[in-house]
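[recover] target loaded
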C-alpha cells in the first residue's frame, strides 16, 4: 500500500471516528464534507481558515488539499483549542498540510505574505460579535486572488453576520454569492470575479 493511500484512509477514519464528538463550536460533519467538495471542485490550493477551534473543519480542508496539492494556514486565538487542534492534526495524519497559527486573526492576517484562493471564515470576536465577519473579510480581501472563494459559516442560523457583510459585498460589486445548506448552519460562498 502506498504512503498516500495510507494517509487518506487515516484521515477518513479519523473523521468518521470523531463524527458527532466535536464540542468546541466545530462545524458539523456535513459542512466539513461541503468544504471538502468546494475545495476539490475549485481545485483550491492556498487556503486560509479563520477560527481553527480544535480543528474539525481544518481536517476536512486538509483532506481536500491532500488531493489538490495545496496547503492551509489556520488561525486560532485560544491556546488550549490551538493545542488540541495540533494533536488532532497529528492523529489524523494531516499536520504536514497545515500551518496552525496561535493569535488574533485580525492582527496576523495583515502580516501574511501569501495570497489565497480559498478562505473559510468561522470566528466571532468576543468584543464586536456582529461586526466580526465584515472585519475579517476586510482584513483578508486584499489577499484573496481573483477567481478565489471567500466562504463563511453560520449564515442561515442567526449566529453569524447580521447582514452588513452581504451589504458590503453588494456595494463592492465584484463578488457572486451562493449559499450551501448542507446543515442548518449554512455556508456562503462568494467568488471574487475581478
Ligand atoms: C466556531 S469556532 C471554529 C470552529 C472550527 N472552524 C471547526 O469547525 O472546528 C470559532 C473559533 O474562532 C476563535 N476566534 C475567535 N476570535 C478569533 C480571532 N480574533 N482570531 C482567531 N480566532 C478567533 C474562537 O476561539 C473559536 O475557537
Amino acid at each position: 500500500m502506498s504512503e498516500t493511500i495510507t494517509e487518506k484512509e487515516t484521515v477518513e477514519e479519523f473523521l468518521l471516528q470523531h463524527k458527532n464528538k466535536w464540542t468546541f463550536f466545530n462545524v458539523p460533519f456535513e459542512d466539513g464534507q461541503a468544504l471538502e467538495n468546494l475545495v476539490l471542485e475549485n481545485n483550491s490550493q492556498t487556503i486560509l481558515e479563520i477560527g481553527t477551534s480544535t480543528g474539525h473543519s481544518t481536517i476536512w480542508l486538509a483532506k481536500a488539499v491532500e488531493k489538490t496539492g495545496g496547503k492551509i494556514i489556520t488561525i486560532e486565538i485560544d491556546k488550549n483549542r490551538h493545542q488540541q487542534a495540533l494533536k488532532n492534526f497529528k492523529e489524523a495524519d494531516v499536520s504536514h498540510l497545515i500551518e496552525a497559527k496561535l493569535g488574533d486573526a485580525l492582527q496576523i492576517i495583515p502580516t501574511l505574505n501569501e495570497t489565497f484562493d480559498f478562505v473559510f471564515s468561522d470566528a466571532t470576536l468576543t468584543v464586536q460579535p456582529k461586526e466580526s465577519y465584515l472585519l475579517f473579510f476586510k482584513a483578508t480581501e486584499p489577499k484573496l486572488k481573483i477567481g478565489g472563494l471567500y466562504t463563511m459559516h453560520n449564515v442561515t442560523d442567526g449566529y453569524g453576520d447580521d447582514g452588513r457583510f452581504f451589504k458590503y459585498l453588494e456595494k463592492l460589486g465584484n463578488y457572486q454569492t451562493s449559499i450551501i445548506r448542507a446543515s442548518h448552519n449554512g455556508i456562503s460562498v462568494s467568488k471574487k470575479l475581478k
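[recover] notes: The chain has one domain: 3-192.
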